[in-house]
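Extended Data, panel c. Modelled sequence:
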Amino acid sequence: MSKLYDIKGYWNMAYNYQFNDNDMWEGKILLEDDGWFEGIVADPNSSYTEDSFIFGVYHPEKVIELFKFTPIDVSSPFVFHGRRDAKGYDGEFETIGLFGSMPCGVSHIITQDAELNRGNVDLETQELQNKVQRYKNDIMDEVGKEFYNNSIGMRNSMCQIILRNHEGRGFSVEESSKIMEECQPVNDRVMQTTEEEAKRLVKKISKNITDDDLPF
């Protein structure tokens, strides 16, 4: 059964844990029993006024791994890593690019159980479900769809791996085999897509290079 949480995230690109409301996003998520969540947030101080889509793995009081997406022509996607401390979830955040992720700064994420905070949240839950579906149908671009679908393909493995890594627990040979079986098709798709994108990038660059630009 889905559980509604309020969520707020702060970031600092100077790598110190001093945060303010200028560099912040906030919204709501729906958390499933296995630790998977999806939600919608907004950046109050951004020129981008549409919704941002967030999803990932959240094990309350332990750890959160959060992906934040807007259309690629607005911003590169981000991933926020957070471990529980006294006031929230602290960790680094990174930008996600064609060839992997790149460290960008540190972040602080706060969550609150919406039902404990406000009582009945059935209407809010339905409204958030509608917003998430609207984002997937009307706003999510091909880059976002591909990344999201690949993540869904590894949902079970991601939820387990992130929790066990946090707790310092390993996997049996049988469990590892099941995870590899789930992840391999996604890995194959990613490798193929990366190779195709790299080839397109090289061709695009080559068209814009003259002999004077060459380093030899």
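The helical segments are 114-118, 122-139, 142-153, 155-167, 173-207. This feature is highlighted in the accompanying rendering.
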